[in-house]
Amino acid sequence: MAKAKKQPRPKALPPKGFRDYFGAEVATRKTMLDQIAAVYHRYGFEALESSAVETVE
Hints:
The protein is about 35% helix and about 0% strand. It has 1 helix and no strands. It is elongated, with a radius of gyration of 20 Å.
């Protein structure tokens, strides 16, 4: 009996409309977002985090 060929493993790609950030770009984005959050905090706003992906009904 012949061995079944293994299918190649699919590449892990981000969903459409999303992207990954690496290295120096992560640090730059974090610094920018921290500065924005500090300004919001000074004006009395509170943090809000919501999910980036929602289920399809």
